């Protein structure tokens, strides 16, 4: 499964994809997805919990990585979306696949670092794991938050060449450590299939078919309705917002600028839109000024982990 990585040059920021996006190599798509996640997180953290009119009043259009926001971040700093993804990715690399106890330990260790931001459902799951050793939360109809979806990129990369059923199994192993909800599972699994399709160079029309498949499964995900603004952390509102921005804009920068200016859970809509757009357009489509503004250590970890996960040949039969 190992792929040559020589076609990825991390210093090569400014190159735009050619007119045919299907020729972007796999390495640039997986690295683009990971950097897109971090850039979207860093960009959206500024406007998290703001309404679109508050954003307009304060920034006009928010289109640069400037930090601040309710977390008072340094410019280029990321939040739990990127940090939990890196923790999950490290656990996958260590075990050559998703093992629920290793994932739960990684999340627990991350929580010990006193992260600036942590979701309530995530905290509850980790606390429960620490006290009980149980790696699967009981199914809960109220836990359809976006917290498992936002960290799921490492699963898509490590299992890019596995079957959808194999991805579904490992996605639920990592998700259910904190979020056990069928609606959240469906949204996360749809995102994984869209990411993997994008890695393989599938067209935006094909990605749209996958999103439409989620809507056919659960009509609450319909996104061809009124404009989604100020989305909550409910995965349905998150993905509706991301899909509207992704399918109505035609480049990485416009997709991300659109989504973070809708406010609400903007670091997570930014992170998920960034993964999708980065996978679709490749790392070369991410504006150089955003990459330069991103925390240098985060950027390096994202690049390194993306390439390691891609070549992992992950175990498709997790034993936990
Ligand atoms: Mg966050």
Would you kindly provide a written description of the structure presented here, covering whatever features stand out?
With 320 residues, the protein is an all-alpha fold. It has a single domain, classed as Orthogonal Bundle (ADP-ribosylglycohydrolase fold). 56% of the residues lie in helices and 0% in strands. It has helices at residues 26-44, 52-59, 80-95, 100-112, 120-132, 153-158, 164-175, 182-199, 204-217, 235-248, 252-260, 266-281, 288-293, 296-310. α1 (26-44) runs antiparallel to α14. Mean pLDDT is 92; it is low at 1-6 and 13-19. Residues 79-81, 117, 267-268 line the site of magnesium ion (MG).
Quick gist of this model?
The chain contains 14 helices and no strands. It starts with 25 loop residues before the first helix and ends in a 10-residue tail after the last helix.
